[in-house]
Structures are given as C-alpha cells and as structure tokens.
Amino acid sequence: MVHGRKLAKETLLPSVLEHGDADTESEMPQLGEQGVIWTEVKMHGPNNQHSSPYRNMLIGGDREGEEEEEEEEEEEIKQEQLGGEDRVNSDDDYDTDLELGVFVHVADQEDAYDPTGQTCYMEACEKLQVAPASNFLQQMKNCELSMMHRGLGPQLHSVHEGLFLLITSVSPGGRKGTEALAVPLVTNTSILRLNLRDNWMEGMGGAAIAEMLKENCYITEVDLSDNSLGDYGARAMAGMLKENGTLVNLNLSGNNFTDQSVEHLGSAVITNTKLQHLNLSHNALGEHAGLILGDSLSENTGLRWLSLAWNCIRGRGAVMLANGLGGNIFLRSIDLSFNGFGKEGAIALEQALRENSVLEELNVSNNRIPPEGAIHLAMGLKVNKTIKSLNMGRNPIQNAGCFGILKSVKDNPDSAMEALDFSDITVNQDFEDLYMAVKENFPALTVNHGGRIGTFSIAKA
C-alpha cells in the first residue's frame, strides 16, 4: 500500500492529490500555466490489462533522457507492487461517480480551434476552482449530454486516494459547477440534447445556462427540471426564450416558480415562436399565473404541447386560462391535471372545446370537477371535431358525469374521440350498455373506469 500511495503521488495531477500532500503539490506543474494545455485521455478498459492509468504522457520539450529514466523507475515500482505482472485492476474495483482518466501534458503546442470546448472547460474549472467532471468531458462529442443528479450547483471537489469523486458542498448560491459547464457549451457544435435534471442549480446556475443558450444555436432540447431555479431563474429563462431561435423542447418542471415567475415567462411565450414543448408542471403557479398564461396562450403561435400539471390554478385564473385555450390555434396537447378548475373552470372549458379546432389531447384529471361540470364539458364535446383523448379521472363526476360525456361522443358523428379515462370513478350498468352501443359507431374507442357498481362482493371465508 505504501508503494501504491507513493506511485500515485508521483504521477497524478495536483487536482487529484490529497490536500495534505502539500509538499508533493508544490513540485507539480499547475493547470493553466502559460504554454500548457491539459486534455483528458480515456483510460483503457479491463480488456487491455497492459495499460497503466498512472502514466503521464509528455509531448515536446527536451526531456527524452529523463523520460526513459522515469519509465524505468516506474516499471521497477510496478513490478514490486504487482508481483511482476504489468497489469491494473478492473474499473469495477473503484467506487466513483466519475470515471477514471489521466491527463496529457502538451507543452509548447499552439492553441487550435476546439469545437467541443474541452480546452475552455478546463480553463474555466481552474478559474472557478472546481474539479473537472470526466463524465462531462467524455460526452462532449455526443449528440446528447446527460448530467442528472450530479450536484452541479454546489462547488465540485475531488480527491480520495487519487481517485475522482463527486462531492457536493454547501456554498452560498452555489453555482460554480454549472458555470464551468456552461462555458464550453457556448461554442459546442455536437450536443443537441441537454439533460441537467436535479442538480440544485438555483437561480444563478440557471442564469448561466440561460446565457449559454442565448449564444448556442445547436441545442434543441433542454431538461432543467428539479433545480430550484426560483423567480430569478425564471426571469433568466424568459430573457433567453426571447432571443433563442433554436430550442424546441424545454422542461422547467419542479423549479419553485410562482406567479411572479410567470410575469416574465408569459411575455416570452408570446415572443418565442420556435418552442414547441414546454413543461411547467410541479411548480407553485396560482390564480394570477392562470390569468397571464391565458393571455399568452391566445397569442402564442409555436407551442404544440404544454404541461401545467400539479400547480394551484383555480377560480378566475382557471377560467381565463380556459378562455386562452379556446383562442389558441396551434396547441395539440395540454395537461391541466392536479389543479383546481372545479365547476367554474369546467364551464369555461366547454366554451373552449366549442371554439378550439386543433386540440387533440386534454387532461383535466384531479381537478375537483363535479357532475355539473362534467355535463358542461360534454356539451362542448358534442360539437368538437378534434379531441382524441380526454382524461377526467379522479374527479367527483360520478356515473352521471361519465354517462353524459360518453353520450356526447355518441351524439357527435364527427367526433374524433379514441380514448376516455374515468380512472377511479365507478359506473353502473346503464353506462356499460351505452358503451356497447357507442362501440358500434366508434369501434376503436377505449374507455377506462373504476369498475361497475354492483360487481364488487365480499369474498367468502
């Protein structure tokens, strides 16, 4: 073990040495010295057992003789440590979130254009004093970058026995890991889909990504869900959407957005005509947000899919949102589940279904809609020609509401309905008989419900 630790100290970069090894660190070249470029080399896997993860490669300079002596010394230490076998353990022996890698020291080499941004990422990490994430470096040439659950918001640290480890630390408004990652993405031309879900970026980290997206013209899909962006981050995202002309899919679910957030996002939804999928679910959007989004939807000409599920849109906000939906002529699918539309919202949705001629999927499950509200929705469906899927599950509409909606489909010869969802709502035999009659004219129609009344019985002991 003594020889192993000695070997690690002699060959690893300062960034992966233990903090207590100050004497060793002082002897090693530091990242960012003039004329020095650091790049990562992917290690050979267990199939190539004659490769060493501890070997520094030096290109250029006048150290050929020194190289030979160093290699001989390394070989002697390895033979003594490994019993004469020149091999390394499998990657499975290491417990780390970041894959092992070594760095190539390139001296006296002129800077060249780097379309992946690896060089500027290393420089940004040094400037921000964060450990470079090898997982990120390995994906920079891929069309999709996935860095979920990696704590990019708080500062990244490293070092444990020479191995890279990802350790999150508490730092005020921590965002350095995100900032370092955003720098190379400005000019990266390979990545098209970016997944940074659950990294605790907070507002400042989200702002860094937003600034990057203002410049990047290749990324089309971004997932920033569960990052606690807050109102500050929402404002940054709104500014980005007003300038970005490439983004098609944006997931901002679970970011503690409030009505104040939507004051910024609402105008951005009107301005941006390229974004087609927007997810604002699992936030804290209330009645005022419904008012703003209603106006935005009536003027938006880009969105095809929108999720506002798991918010607090109710009352007048629900009514105004439904009114905006009626005036929209581009949206194909909207998820309004787990809000509080109630009877008033259902009445407004009736008018929206009468006016809207493009919407195909509507989810209003878990909205406290009573039987009277379901009857109003049924009246809208009686004339609608585009709705293919309606989810009314887990509303207290009872059998009467289910029966009314199904009958509206039967009475509308131009109905496009293919799926009705009445999950957890029990129906009676009359509903079952009506369903059989509707199937004659709509053989492809599927109906899901919570079971038929009277079919449940207590099992005998």
Cα shape: elongated
Gap between N and C termini: 66 Å
Q: What's the number of helices?
A: 15
Mean pLDDT metric = 78
Strand order of the largest sheet: 4-7-8-9-10-11-12-13-14-15-16
Say how many strands there are: 16
**Segments where pLDDT lies below 50 for 5+ residues?**
1-63, 84-110, 154-174, 457-461
Decide which structural class fits the backbone: alpha/beta
Radius of gyration: 30 Å
SS strand fraction: 5-15%
**Major sheet:** 11 strands, parallel
* DSSP helix fraction: 25-40%
For the structure shown, list the relevant keywords:
461 residues; 16 strands; disordered N terminus; eleven-stranded parallel sheet; three-stranded mixed sheet; alpha/beta; 15 helices
Description of the molecule:
This protein is of the alpha/beta class and 461 residues long. 39% of the residues lie in helices and 12% in strands. The strands form three sheets. The protein has an eleven-stranded parallel β-sheet with strand order 4-7-8-9-10-11-12-13-14-15-16, with no helix packed on it. A three-stranded mixed β-sheet has the order 1-3-2. Helix 9 (259-271) runs parallel beside helix 10 (287-299). Mean pLDDT is 78; it is low at 1-63, 84-110, 154-174 and 457-461.
